[in-house]
Amino acid sequence: MQTIDNFKFAGKKAIVRVDFNVPLDENGKITDDTRIRGALPTLKKVLADGGSLIIMSHMGKPKGKVNAKYSLSQIVDAVSEKLGVAVKFADDCAKAADAAAALQPGEVLLLENLRFYGEEEGKPVGIDKEDPAYEDAKKAMKASQKEFAKTLASYADCYINDAFGTAHRKHASTAVIADYFDAENKMLGYLMEKEVQAVDNILSNINRPFTAIMGGSKVSTKIGIIENLMDKVDNLILCGGMTYTFAKAMGGEIGNSICEDDKLQLALDIIEQAKAKGVNLVLGTDCVAADDFSNDANTQVVPANAIPEGWEGLDAGPETQKAFAEAIEGAKTILWNGPAGVFEFDNFTAGSRAIAEAIAKATANGAFSLIGGGDSVACINKFGMADKVSYISTGGGALLEAIEGKVLPGVAAIKG
Ligand code: AMP
To answer: Of 10, 57, 159, 285, whose CB neighbour count within 10 A is largest?
Structure first.
């Protein structure tokens, strides 16, 4: 596989798919530039080697229509400032051939939002899924998606995908475009390489013991991951809202706690699977129960299977926190996805904080720790502990699909 370190960019044009889907305030100002910063090493490498850049990204969900609210023109100044180069802008990503051809080494062209074209996602625009004509429209769209990808590819000599956040999508710019480049002219960017390596560390290259912590609100959204991890982990902590589905499945009283009544059997199956596979399954034994779903609710610590009527479990209790810490602190590989409580309320952060602190301790002792998938990243940032873990994924959905063991189209298109 070609790599960004081996490729000779001098005099070449590189088209780079990045994830510049940054949040903007009502005045179009960027409120969090993490994603732009994440792509800089790749972009700077191409420029430093004497190449020129054609940068492409999506922003928001314009659904195949031009919408000024999602125009990437709003971030031109920020990207220019970060790259130290005056970035040119092509206001139609499918009509940028001349602007791309005119690029000199060291110059940068940013294309307008790819999703102003339905072809990017390959979904028919303006036609309902229920419409009998939808399937034909979808077929036609797949054909024009190829044309769109071919047009983008024609702008450059080589293709780099550095957008891990969309790697689980088979879109024109994330996967289809790769068909128009030979193997030696397409590669993963640095951010993608790091993400792929991090996933590899927890799925294939595992240093034991391996502890996975799955939290969040529901079992149903995490079941694919739980099943894939069951064959790999030594310790599996299941926490957060799913605690109460397990407690109820085992005959407990859970008051008003969040519960998926149609997943009680699934919970029992998971317990059986863990036993059969020799996985140490750690479930909450006590919890902080509240008399209202609010930060200022009255609270009491009660067994997770004996929650009084009218109360609901909103965080892990002290005994549970200790059990979590024990399963984490001795680990050499750690994955954390999903909080142990309603961490958005300051009074219900203790369980998640105990997890974060144990991960930090294990990491300091040489463990590899990967934090990913939305809310656990928000959690670790809220606690100011981002620099105490090995790797924080930028991926969200892409990371979750990778951990489920699914092939990511954006990676496969380059790796083959
Ligand atoms: P998820 O998106 O499935 O990872 O879930 C994250 C959400 O789960 C966060 O917003 C948490 O507030 C929520 N959560 C965690 N523990 C609980 C709980 N015990 N009761 C209700 N919601 C919870």
So the answer is: 57
Six token digits for residue 300: 């009491």
For residue 292, the CA-to-ligand 1 centroid distance in Å is 15
End-to-end CA distance of the chain: 8
What is the pTM for the complete model shown?
0.90
C-alpha 147/C-alpha 364 separation (Å) is 50
Domains of the chain: 13-188 (3.40.50.1260), 197-403 (3.40.50.1260)
Contact in structure between 356 and 376 (CB atoms under 8 Å): no
Among the listed residues 44, 62, 188, 193, the one whose alpha carbon sits nearest the alpha carbon of residue 118: 62
Take residue 366 and report the two structure tokens written for it. 């040489």
Is 397 a known active-site residue? yes
Asked whether 345 lines ligand 1 (CB < 6 A), one says no
Residue with token string 């970060």: 82
3-state secondary structure of 10: coil
Is the pLDDT at 278 greater than 70, yes or no? yes
> Is pLDDT above 80 for 374?
no
Hunting for tokens 């902590």 — which residue is that? 237
Output the pLDDT for position 395. 84
The two tokens of residue 338 are 């999903």
Whether residue 284 has its Cβ less than 6 Å from ligand 1: no
Question: Measured between alpha carbons, how far is 406 from 161 in angstroms, rounded to an integer?
Answer: 18
Instruction: Kindly name the residue from 35, 123, 222, 248 that is annotated as catalytic.
Output: 35
Q: Are strands 286-290 and 312-316 parallel, antiparallel or unpaired?
A: antiparallel
Say if residues 36 and 77 touch (Cβ distance below 8 Å): no
pLDDT in tens, 351-362: 999 999 999 999
Check residue 34 and give its pLDDT. 86
> What does the block give as tokens for 350?
């203790």
In the beta sheet, which residues pair with residue 161?
A: 17, 188
34 exposure class (CB count in 10 Å sphere: 0-12, 13-18, 19+):
middle
Tens digit of each residue's pLDDT (9 = 90 or more) over 381-406 = 999 999 999 999 988 889 999 999 99
Q: Which atom of ligand 1 is nearest to the CA of 338?
A: 4
Ligand 1 atom closest to residue 287's alpha carbon, by position in its atom list: 19
17 has catalytic annotation: no
Kindly tell me the burial class for residue 250, based on how many C-beta atoms sit within 10 Å of its own C-beta (0-12, 13-18, 19 or more).
middle
Is residue 374 flagged as an active site residue? yes
- Contact, 291 vs 297, CB < 8 A? yes
